[in-house]
């Protein structure tokens, strides 16, 4: 099974896909006339209550829900995996993907709102499926996206997070992954069975603490290791453009792997 998955991953994460992904970021950045310059305005809008806006969750609830998927597993485990597999240079491509990817995220949000529909229960329903069906008039693409997304939910939707949490708890406290997994399943079920409003409410409560601890933790680590910050930055930039990334101990640390894991993890973390 691992061989089959690895073979598929080699094709899916190949040069063509990397060009399409990063190329889309750059194209949309140009097409939106560098939407990134409005990032602080976007943050302000996200945390400002808008009682007249039509939707199931607030702007802050949507922001918190989006951040919940990246803080921790994405920003910590994802980046660590990128460095271990692609070398220090992968971090540079994570940065670039995060910066240019703002334009793609903006486009995704605009399309989701433009082509959403109101369900029978009065709630809003949207996403790429509806943009493909109503925007491109290609319902079959929407159906395929929904099908693939359903399968993906078993992996990137919860498998990655569950694996990281259970592994850490086992190594730190010696608790069986079966016990930790069962607890995660119950807690997740209690949240998601309440629908999108329940998910947003929980995220609104938890994410500010998650983000705060994450940022404070990063600052403390940088302060403790301040002597290594500049050398690390130099290594990251140099390794991003050299065929053999610095630190020969890394697994397959080549320029292609730095690009591949940097761009892929950049999407996952941002």
Q: What are the SSEs and their pairings?
A:
Layout: H1 2-12, H2 15-31, H3 39-47, H4 59-68, H5 73-86, H6 89-114, E1 117-118, E2 124-125, H7 128-135, H8 139-157, H9 159-173, H10 177-192, H11 195-224, H12 229-240, H13 255-269
Antiparallel strand pairs: 1-2
Helix pairs in contact: 2-6, 2-13, 4-11, 5-6, 5-13, 6-7, 6-12, 6-13, 7-8, 9-10
Describe this structure in words.
The chain has 270 residues and is mainly α. The chain has one domain (2-45, 58-269). The protein contains 13 helices and two strands; from the N terminus they run ααααααββααααααα. It has a two-stranded antiparallel ribbon with strand order 1-2. The longest helix is centred in the last third of the chain and has 30 residues, at 195-224. The radius of gyration is 20 Å and the shape is globular.
Summarize the structure.
The protein has helices spanning 2-12, 15-31, 39-47, 59-68, 73-86, 89-114, 128-135, 139-157, 159-173, 177-192, 195-224, 229-240, 255-269; strands spanning 117-118, 124-125. The protein is mainly α. It has one domain.
Descriptive labels:
about 270 residues; mainly alpha; two-stranded antiparallel ribbon; about 0% strand; globular
Largest sheet, in brief, is: 2 strands, antiparallel
Low-confidence stretches: 245-253
Average pLDDT number: 85
Shape: globular
Specify Rg, calculated over alpha carbons.
20 Å
Order of helices and strands: HHHHHHEEHHHHHHH
Tally of individual helices: 13
Number of domains: 1
Decide which structural class fits the backbone: mainly alpha
Distance between the termini: 29 Å
User: Helix content range of the residues, please?
Assistant: over 70%
């Amino acid at each position: 099974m691992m061989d089959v998955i690895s073979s598929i991953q080699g094709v899916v994460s190949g040069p063509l896909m990397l060009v399409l992904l990063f190329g889309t970021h750059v194209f949309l950045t140009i097409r939106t006339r560098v939407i990134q310059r409005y990032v602080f305005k976007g943050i302000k809008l996200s945390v400002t209550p808008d009682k007249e806006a039509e939707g199931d969750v607030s702007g802050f609830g949507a922001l918190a829900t989006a951040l919940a998927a990246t803080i921790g597993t994405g920003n910590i485990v994802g980046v660590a995996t990128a460095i271990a597999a692609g070398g220090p240079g992968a971090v540079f491509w994570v940065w670039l993907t995060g910066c240019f990817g703002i334009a793609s995220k903006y486009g995704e949000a605009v399309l989701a709102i433009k082509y959403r529909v109101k369900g029978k229960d009065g709630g809003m329903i949207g996403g790429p499926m509806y943009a493909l069906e109503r925007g491109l008039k290609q319902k079959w693409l929407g159906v395929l996206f929904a099908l693939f997304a359903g399968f993906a939910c078993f992996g990137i939707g919860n498998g990655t997070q569950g694996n990281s949490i259970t592994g850490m708890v086992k190594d730190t406290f010696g608790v069986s992954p079966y016990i930790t997994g069962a607890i995660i399943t119950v807690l997740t079920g209690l949240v998601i069975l309440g629908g999108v409003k329940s998910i947003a409410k929980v995220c609104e409560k938890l994410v500010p603490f998650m983000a705060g601890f994450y940022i404070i933790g990063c600052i403390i680590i940088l302060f403790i290791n301040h002597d290594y910050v500049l050398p690390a930055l130099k290594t990251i930039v140099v390794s991003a453009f050299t065929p053999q990334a610095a630190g020969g101990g890394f697994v397959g640390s080549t320029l292609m792997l730095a690009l591949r894991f940097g761009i892929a993890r950049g999407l996952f973390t941002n």
